[in-house]
Amino acid sequence: MQAPDTFRQALLIAIPRLRRYARSLVFDVAGADDLVQTTLERALLHWHQFDHQRELLVWLMSIAHNAFLDQRRRDSRLSIVEPSEVEAEQDAQRMDPGADVGLRLDLMAALERLSPEQREPLLLVTVEQFSYAECAQALGIPIGTVMSRISRARVALREHLDGQSRPAGSARLRRVI
Amino acid sequence: MSSNLPPDAFETPDDAMLSAWLDGELDPIAHANVAAWLRRNPHEAARVRQWRHDRDDLHAHFAPVVDEPVPPALLATLQRAPAQQPLWRRAAMVAGLLITGAAAGGLAGVSWVSQHPDNVAALPSALRGASPVQPTSWTHRAAVAHAVYVPEVKHPVEVSVTQGTEAEQRAQEEHLARWLTKRLDMPVRLFDLHSQGFELVGGRLLPDAAGPSAQLMYQDSAGQRVTLYLRKPEPGATAAFRFQREGELGMFYWMEDGFGYALVGKLPREQLLAVAQAVYGQSGMSPAPAKTP
Questions:
Q1: Quick one: B130 exposed, middle or buried, by C-beta within 10 A (0-12, 13-18, 19+)?
Q2: B57 and B137: one domain?
Q3: Could you say which of B51, B61, B154 has the minimum Cβ distance to residue A154?
Q4: Which of A133, B154, B202, B263 could bond to B160 as cystine, CB 3.0-4.6 Å?
Q5: For residue B23, what are the domain limits?
């Protein structure tokens, strides 16, 4: 059975915020929109599972979260990134005229170095302005875990911004909570 | 409130507590206690102020995304059946929309109903007067294939020619041409539409009435896509160069040199015609890669 028009309409309204969350997770526009597309497709497929007592956005973010993890699992098996590509991408970001050059690029680089486990709750709370309870729902973890991951994310982000962190190459050795 | 409490009335808050305080997640008493503790510990208060700046910066950085126009491909996702459905059902759904023209206009923005005689243009004039191709047969399938695959963000084509280095792309093009040539049992060439601003994305094999057909997809720098549908014509079919338009979508189709061609795109007619002419101009040549060296 197809999702009703009212549901599609609600999804339509949610797209801008889904795109923002995806952008903050995936960084590049095309990759982020792929994530949004996957999220919308899954939402349409499972629309009947949506409990109308819940906040649609929280439900959608939980779908996006799972899609993001699926994608990372796939990428960790497949991805071979040419160093030149990475450089080109970083150059392109550096030349982005829309960015506040000094601070925000550092902020983005620092953000990118956080583990997804830290990054997701931090972004849901700071950018999406979710409560800890909503964040816990979206990520499927207890509120206490949300609380500790966010604080660790803040400390780690500051370390990166203050230049106290290890070089980027060792980023994948970071502790996973 | 804090003045009523001795300094050691509650334990030193840890980072999780400070962070929750910043996010307004503590109950009123705990909130006031942390506020009082921060006033007594200016060094810790400075750390928390930095966290607040980081929070505000993160929010400010991503805030503009919500004001960006939503890409058409995402809107299209909402207008069609879920991707996990078997492909034939999606195609059938699109086809169903086409047949019930009224629904198609509202939902997919595509509605191929039947040929509009006053929209038919013949070109080149040498071919004018030849009997028209039945528009409800393979050209219909070309339109359906366009409607199904063009909105696709992840898998617009089966064989992509846009990955990797230039040499790898060339190899992918050769592979695509060889593969389609073998499967269609006709020499398939990848047309070079750079002069029209279109780059080859890749191609896929599709089922047609009597056997396989192929779809080549091209994209311009603005992300606008056109598809070229290739198939073996029915025996005895005659060449005609015709145009159909419905809504924003247009199609030129013709037969030539043992091939049926249908070029579909959401372009102004003049521009679509120019692309069709570029294809037509190259179709007499021997198979060649899409990119000029």
A1: middle
A2: no
A3: B51
A4: B202
A5: 10-66
What pTM did the predictor assign?
Answer: 0.49
Strand-strand pairing, B225-231 and B259-265: antiparallel
If asked whether residues B46 and B103 sit together in one domain, one would say no
So what's the ipTM on this one? 0.79
Q: Which residues pair with B256 in a beta bridge?
A: B259
Q: What residues pair up with B263 in beta bridges, in sequence order?
A: B228, B252
**Residues 189-218 in B contacting A (C-alpha not used; CB under 8 Å):** none
Chain B residues touching residue A19 (CB < 8 angstroms): 65-66, 68, 70, 74
Cβ(B149)–Cβ(B157) under 8 Å? Answer: yes
Q: Quick one: B107 and B126 in the same domain?
A: yes
Average pLDDT for B40-64: 94
B109 part of a folded domain: yes
Q: Where are the domains of chain A?
A: 1-80, 90-177
B216: which residues sit within 8 A by CB, 6+ positions away? B190, B191, B200, B202, B203, B227, B228, B230
> DSSP letter at A163?
T
Tell me, yes or no, if B49 comes closer than 8 A to chain A by beta carbon. Answer: no
Q: At B201, which CATH number?
A: 3.30.200.100
Is A174's Cβ below 8 Å from some Cβ in B? no
Predicted local distance difference test score (pLDDT) of residue B271: 86
Point out the residue among A11, A126, A155 whose CB comes nearest to the CB of B55. Answer: A126
In this prediction, residue B218 carries a pLDDT of 95
- pLDDT of the residue at B252: 84
Question: What are the pLDDT digits (tens) for A61-85?
Answer: 999 999 999 888 877 665 455 555 5
CA distance B238 to B253: 12
CATH number attached to the domain at A90-177: 1.10.10.10
pLDDT tens column, B53-74:
999 999 999 999 988 888 888 8
User: Looking at this protein, which amino acid is placed at residue A149?
Assistant: R
- Kindly indicate the confidence band of residue B247, based on its pLDDT and cuts at 50, 70 and 90: low
Same domain, B171 and B267: yes
pLDDT digits (tens, 9 = 90+) for A126-154: 999 999 999 999 999 999 999 999 999 99
A97: which 2 tokens? 């005229």
Query: Got the DSSP string for B144-164?
Result: HHHHHHTT-SS-S-SEES-SS
Q: Which residue has the tokens 């126009």?
A: B69
